[in-house]
Amino acid sequence: DSSADATATADASPMGTATATADATATATATAIVTEDTTAATAATAADASTADTAAAEQHAFDKIIIGEDQLSDYVGKPIFTSDRIYATNPVGVVTGLAWTSMGGAVLYIETQPAGRFVKRDKKGGKGDGSEGEGDSKGGGSATVRSTGQMGDVMRESSQIAHTFARSYLYKLQPENDFLETTPLHVHVPEGATPKDGPSAGITMVTSFLSLAMDMPPRSDLAMTGELTLTGRVLAIGGVREKLIAARRSGVQHIIFPKANERDYTELPQNLRDGVQVYFAQDYDDVFRIAFPQADGENAS
Question: Which regions span the lipid bilayer (predicted)?
Answer without folding.
Answer: none
